């Protein structure tokens, strides 16, 4: 059974990806309150990293500021995940990542990375993996198509606003409303993409 903290944290992530920043902040504050009752610094670090992962999934790259004050007391797995989200994970630490991200992290090339990405069942994890691939220069068109399709299928507007839609380039795929939206994002954002997205 899912713990209350995890449930609230997942609701915060979903709200953020939907584009509802106010609801996301409220849910994250609720998660922090629940964690404060436990006194668990590991749980707090994990929660803050989950929030940062949602931002990475939306191609908002950068340091996870909420995690940094917790870093000295955080477990090695949390420090490794923070490095992964920043695109700076040493290969030797890949085994400490959440299971869904391990095969993406150790992929030798863009094709194998895209294949590993397609095996991730959880849509948030898939989008995070794709974002890390993009951040580290290993995202091929197949990975980007997966990311756009994932965000579109879930109704997550935020990742498509400034980010994943820019690389939509698959004219042979059916022009569903979600994919037309992705194409629109591509048109609006492609010119400013490199400056906007680079860490």
| Number of DSSP E strands | 0
Structural class: mainly alpha
Helix content: 55-70%
Calculate the mean pLDDT score and round it.
Answer: 81
Sketch the topology as an H/E string, one letter per element. Answer: HHHHHHHHHH
Shape label: globular
Strand content: under 5%
Largest sheet: none
Flag low-confidence runs.
166-199
Distance between the termini: 38 Å
The number of distinct helices, counting runs of at least 4 residues, comes to: 10
The radius of gyration computed from the alpha-carbon positions, rounded to a whole number of angstroms, is 17 Å
Q: How would you explain this protein's 3D organization?
A:
- The protein is mainly alpha-helical.
- It is 61% helix and 0% strand.
- The chain is built from 10 helices and no strands.
- Helix 1 runs parallel beside helix 3, helix 3 packs parallel to helix 4 and helix 7 packs antiparallel against helix 8.
- The longest helix is centred in the N-terminal third of the chain and has 18 residues.
- The radius of gyration is 17 Å and the shape is globular.
- The termini are far apart.
- The C terminus is likely disordered.
Question: What labels would you give this structure?
Answer:
199 residues; mainly alpha; 61% helix; globular; disordered C terminus
């Amino acid at each position: 059974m899912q713990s209350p903290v995890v449930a609230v944290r997942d609701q915060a992530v979903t709200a953020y990806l939907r584009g509802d920043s106010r609801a996301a902040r409220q849910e994250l504050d609720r998660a922090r309150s629940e964690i404060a009752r436990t006194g668990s610094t590991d749980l707090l670090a994990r929660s803050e990293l989950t929030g940062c992962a949602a931002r990475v999934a939306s191609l908002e790259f950068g340091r996870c500021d909420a995690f940094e004050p917790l870093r000295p007391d955080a477990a090695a797995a949390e420090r490794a995940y923070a490095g992964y989200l920043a695109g700076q994970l040493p290969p030797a630490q890949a085994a400490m990542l959440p299971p869904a991200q391990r095969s993406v992290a150790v992929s030798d090339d863009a094709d194998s990375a895209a294949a590993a990405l397609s095996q991730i069942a959880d849509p948030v994890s898939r989008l995070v993996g794709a974002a890390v691939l993009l951040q580290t220069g290993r995202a091929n068109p197949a990975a980007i198509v997966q990311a756009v399709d994932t965000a579109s299928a879930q109704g997550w507007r935020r990742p498509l606003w400034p980010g994943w839609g820019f690389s939509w380039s698959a004219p042979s795929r059916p022009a569903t409303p979600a994919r037309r939206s992705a194409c629109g994002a591509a048109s609006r954002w492609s010119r400013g993409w490199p400056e906007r997205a680079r860490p």
